[in-house]
Specification:
Length: 334
């Protein structure tokens, strides 16, 4: 009888352990999705206007630029790097794309110009970090100020309003009058990033670079070269975000997008891209961006003062990093 009792206790214990492991696995994989769904429920209770069709589309359109920035920051964070100049680069890329669109009338050509601008500016940073061995924090902080200054010099400190007919389509238009263009561009960017990170050798090398650069070097990866590549790759998404942002406001504003790098970083980390590098996914960037968009939207619906919103956004970044560090400690068993 005692042996049977012990067997039952062991079976129950094993069953409980199995359930606990399953819960932990589910939480680790889909916890942030559950958080997002809970936020949607809470926000719909706080404001009856939150779940209206127009507001939901507004949240997703607003999240589009954040998502592309989260993709850009995510690429670098996964690689063990960071970019504090993304907001300035987004601003400059959008401004430079406007005269190209005015001259050609082509969204494709203007979009390529914005992406090229993002690549060039990030390539300069990449040289500073990979060749001159500057810390990414220092190099991107310097670029943040330099690019912002260049945008003001280029525009004379004035808002560029001569954008040409139809320039606002990518940022404000709809496909078939139903599906917003910013959401389409966002989804294309996230899917492209997912394919490259998860399905290519290049993506695997970026994860290796962020996980342990010395181990990556020992395995034959050229660390300096891939550091440079990471900045260039990130520049594609920054340029894309710049075009969508300029098209959304239908203008080139040299003082726009201040602090957007913080939104991109926080979106990436909230979504599950580890701040220490080597972990994360494209879908993490998307989910984190939507969460940031939801928070911003509900604060606006509640008519929270814009200055207070800045405080809240700063606290969100701190909370995201602390949560990421605590999660990493638990995984390491510390």
């Amino acid at each position: 009888m005692q042996q049977e009792g012990n067997k039952k206790m062991k079976t129950t214990s094993l069953s409980e352990n199995s359930v606990t492991k399953s819960i932990k696995k589910f939480t680790s994989s889909y916890g942030i999705v559950v958080v997002m769904l809970l936020m949607i429920v809470v926000c719909s209770i706080i404001s009856p206007n939150f779940l209206t069709k127009n507001n939901v589309l507004n949240v997703l359109c607003q999240s589009a630029v954040y998502a592309m920035l989260a993709c850009a920051e995510g690429v670098l964070i996964i690689s063990g790097l960071i970019d504090l100049s993304a907001g300035s680069t987004v601003c400059m890329a959008g401004i430079l794309a406007i005269p190209v669109y005015v001259a050609t009338g082509s969204h494709v050509v203007a979009l390529l110009a914005a992406i090229a601008s993002g690549i060039v500016m990030n390539a300069i940073t990449g040289v500073f970090v990979s060749a001159l061995k500057l810390p990414a924090f220092v190099a991107t902080l310097a670029m943040q100020m330099a690019v912002r200054g260049a945008a003001k010099v280029y525009t004379g400190g004035m808002v560029v309003t001569e954008t040409g007919e139809g320039f606002s389509f990518v940022g404000q238009g709809y496909i078939g009058g139903v599906f917003p263009m910013p959401i389409l561009v966002m989804l294309i960017a996230v899917i492209a990033l997912w394919i490259i990170l998860d399905k290519t050798r290049f993506g695997r090398n970026l994860f290796a670079l962020g996980g342990n650069s010395e181990a990556a070097r020992a395995s034959g990866i050229n660390v300096e070269r891939y550091t440079f590549y990471a900045f260039i790759f990130s520049g594609i998404f920054v340029g894309l975000a710049g075009y969508v942002q300029a098209s959304r406001v239908n203008a080139g504003i040299p003082t726009s997008c201040i602090g957007y790098e913080g939104k991109g970083i926080s979106a990436a980390i909230i979504g599950g891209i580890g701040f220490a590098g080597g972990t994360g996914s494209a879908w993490s960037a998307l989910i984190g961006a939507v969460i940031i968009g939801i928070i911003s939207n509900i604060l606006n619906l509640m008519k929270v003062d814009s200055y207070v919103q800045e405080i809240i956004n700063g606290l969100i970044i701190v909370a995201a990093v602390v949560l990421d560090l605590q999660t990493k400690k638990k995984k390491l068993g510390k």
